[in-house]
Amino acid sequence: MRQPAPTTNETVRALRQEFDQSFARALQPANLQLLEVLVVRVGGEGYAIRLADIQGLYADRRVVPVPSPLADLLGVTGFRGQVVPVYDLGALLGQTRRGAPRWMVLARTRGRDLLALAFDTFEAYAAVTADRLVAADDPAPASNTTARPFMHGAVRIEQTVRPILQVQSIVDLLQQRVDAARSNKER
After folding, report:
1. Domain annotation covers residue 16
2. For the CA atoms of 55, 59, 61, 66, what is the dihedral angle to 10 degrees?
3. Cα gap 7→13, rounded to integer Å
4. Own/partner pairs for 168-177, CB < 8 Å, 24+ apart?
């Protein structure tokens, strides 16, 4: 049996729905993956930090100095009701401290205690596509060779290539240093 022809109202409704849906499809390109990063400056060097590796970005937090055998420890600050150690990212990357860093990120730590990494300058937020990534096996563009163990690839942002800091590698190193300091203290 033959289906009845759609009415004018049904045809208009179907065309309107298809028109509206075409805009929604245009806003969601297939398989577009973005890497979200913070563009920062540590000492004189530029870096990128994956947004997925941090819990937040903060400026001008009060850091209270505490005695420590770890030279990289600037002191402690409060986050969400917890006392959190703040480490100098520049010192961890082998740079000489120029003054108190203004900015810090709260690192994601795989269930460990919270910690913050302090640095000089926050420059920008960027969401980049895969074609802007530089492979991990390419030489890192930073001149500071101490930082290389903490880097995993790089990203092109505007006309500059920024090494991507691997926050978890930094957290792991700090945990090893803290554990070593505790075992030395117990002896």
Report:
1. no
2. 80
3. 10
4. 168/53, 168/108, 168/110, 170/87, 170/89, 170/92, 170/107, 170/117, 171/107, 171/109, 171/110, 171/112, 171/115, 173/92, 173/149, 174/70, 174/72, 174/87, 174/92, 174/115, 175/112, 177/70, 177/72
Q: Which residues pair with 155 in a beta bridge?
A: 133, 162
- Residue 2 forms part of a structural domain: no
| Domain of residue 54, residue span | 34-186
H/E segment holding residue 22: helix 8-26
Identity of the residue numbered 86: V
Give the domain CATH number at 140: 2.40.50.180
**Is residue 3 domain-resident?**
no
Query: Which tokens hold the place of 31?
Result: 């398989």
- The phi and psi torsions of 161 (rounded to 5 degrees) equal -100, 125
Encode pLDDT of 27-51 as tens digits: 545 556 888 999 999 988 999 999 9
Reported as a single tens digit per residue, the pLDDT across 127-165 is 988 888 887 554 444 444 445 667 778 899 888 899 999
Burial 175-187 (b: 16+ CB within 10 A, else e): eebbeeeeeeeee
Number of domains comprising the chain:
1
